[in-house]
Amino acid sequence: MPKTEETKQAACGCGAYPLSRRNLFGAALALAAAPLLRYDPAQAASVDPSEVAPGIFVHQGRYEVQSPDNRGDIANASFVVGSDGVAVIDTSGSAKMGAELREAIRAVTDKPIKYVINTHMHPDHVLGNAAFSQDEPEFVGHYKLARALGTRKESYLAANEQMLGPEAFEGSEIILPTRLIKEPTTLDLGDRELLLEPQATAHTDNDLIVTDTKTDTLFLGDLLFSVHVPTIDGSIKGWLALLDEIGKRNAARVVPGHGPKTMELPQALVPEQRYLKAIADDVRRQIAEGKTLSEATKTAGFSEKDAWKLFGQYHVRNVTAAFAELEWD
Amino acid sequence: MCNGLKGLTRSFAVVVLAAGVAIASTPPLQAEENMWPTLKAEAFGDRPIQEEDGMVVLETPQKVEDAALVPLTVRVPPHVKGKLKSLSLFIDNNPDPKVATLTYGPAAGTGGERSFSTRVRVDNFSHARAVLELEDGSLHMATKFLAAAGGCAAMQAKDPEADVAGMGKTIVRTFTPALKSSPIWSGQVMVKHPNHNGMQLDINTAKFIPALYVKEMTVTRDGELVFKLDGTFSISTNPNFRFTFGKGEKNDLDVVIVDTDGTEFTGQTQASGS
Questions:
Q1: Does residue B250 lie within any of the structural domains?
Q2: B14 assigned to some structural domain
Q3: Which residue of A has its CA nearest to B161?
Q4: How close A238 gets to chain B, by Cα (Å)?
Q5: Are strands B49-51 and B70-76 parallel, antiparallel or unpaired?
Q6: Which domain holds residue B261?
Q7: Where would I find the beta strands (DSSP E) of B192-233?
Q8: Which CATH number characterizes residue B236's domain?
């Protein structure tokens, strides 16, 4: 397990980065098990993925916005180990988090990291890519991912440097995909294959669904939010339509972009469908009544207020996006 | 990129962008500089401007949630009786601080609250200003501060293909007031147009997508001018305008829009049943 600035500082008890709640349990165990204060910071590594199915490992991000304290650890990041190599699916929100993820992979296997797959463009899923350049993997994404990242590179980096602070941000960069997925494509990991399916505009215009066919595990990226309020950066209509399709699929488990490590279909989708539909219904009605965008942002979808974390941060933006889309119907 | 542009005049910005010059490394041009004295002098010379005197009210969101789509509403309260001459909107720290200028015509209406709403892009923390010119030539200004967090990120289209699809589609509506005899009616124009700001990089060609935005919009009611608007790329993608006009005979609105390519788009309300 990797040693980090955070855990080192926490271990000496004087850190600018206090222990997180999630680390606290591990730290308490380590302290209880160790004589005196011979606390092993490795026990409290912030990337601590679980094997949710044979060869499938998921690290759960926090329900927070980027901060120096969480170092961009706000989205789920996963990896799949095959007999020939490893595929990483999303790399968390900073080069430092990516490096910890890489250490966690190395603690499990020394097989080559062949693929780094990004489920979509958002920084909390891609900024850890930089930590994997040394492995010279194929960086894989939806065929619109390159354009999406290319046009947002400067602003993503500037915004994340500001939110994370210089220390947590250090080393983070935008790495453009080297392999673009336009049609359903399989990647071979030896004894298992990953199916990559590019989607029409939904959460973003570059959402990719990854399926490990061996264990029937679906990585939905931010097509699925749980607990953390969904964020609309594509098309609310496209997203609702795609969720209907995903709901018809059978899978042993799905891995959300934000939420617990695994969930089950179709019930995993229900809260998110309810949220998006509440916005769409309210906004459509208000448009029909001749209401303005600013009027809609004060009421639409507020029935969902207590159902989600980070509602205050993202909800009004979601209503704004929905209004600007639905007013053209 | 956008920071480097701050404070440049539009013409210079367009030249720089057109040349495809890498400006990412340009140091920010005095981000804290107060642009307003310069803007004011350019637009109004040394004419006096009454500030916050209640003749014009500017409404902005308490918190900017999507910097690409910030609703602005200007109200001229009913106690302001005379005709309006012009209305200018500014966002000081935008690459082009001049958002829009409306020059009112005979069908702009009197006898009630007049208003104008649109949605704008906000590049950075900035003041937004509405300057109203009354018939007597007096100028009145309302100012609000916008704390925009999205910056250039939000300037990028969510779905570039969807933005271009159906480009030019123009919807014009009137909203019949509860009291049909009301002297002030309201209308809406929406036009499907990317309103490219010239700052988006086309990654396939490594060149900036040229600026292409709605430059002029003329709104007439029953053939008489309500207003002519001169716009810039500070107006959001798919420009959207709400406005008031004076009640006429038929209350048919006709709209002619011209973008920077010279392409013309027209729209009109359906044959009036009201």
A1: yes
A2: no
A3: A205
A4: 11
A5: unpaired
A6: 36-269
A7: 201-202, 207-208, 214-221, 224-231
A8: 2.60.40.2470
pLDDT per residue over B182-221, tens digit each?
A: 999 999 999 999 888 877 767 677 777 788 899 999 999 9
Block means of pLDDT (10 residues each) for chain A, 329 residues, are 36 33 43 39 66 98 96 98 98 98 97 98 98 98 95 89 96 98 98 98 98 98 98 97 97 98 98 98 96 94 98 95 95
Give which of B242, B156, B271 is closest to A327, Cα–Cα.
B242
Chain A CA closest to residue B165: A328
B159 reaches A (C-beta below 8 A): yes
Looking at chain B, how many residues does it have?
Answer: 274
Q: Is A83 on the interface with B (CB under 8 A)?
A: no
User: A-contacting residues of B 72-101, CB under 8 Å?
Assistant: 73
Interface of A with B in 6-35 (CB under 8 A): none
**Model confidence over B135-147: pLDDT tens digits?**
999 999 999 999 8
In a domain, B218, yes or no: yes
A178 interfacial to chain B (CB closer than 8 Å): no
Q: What's the total number of domains in chain B?
A: 1
Strand stretches in chain A, DSSP E: 50-53, 56-59, 77-81, 86-89, 113-117, 138-142, 179-181, 185-188, 193-198, 208-212, 217-225, 253-258
> What is the interface pTM, i.e. ipTM, of the complex?
0.83
The token pair at B80 is: 């302001």
The residues facing A117 across adjacent strands are A89, A140
Instruction: Say whether B238 and A324 touch across the interface (CB within 8 A).
Output: yes
Residue B8 lies in a domain: no
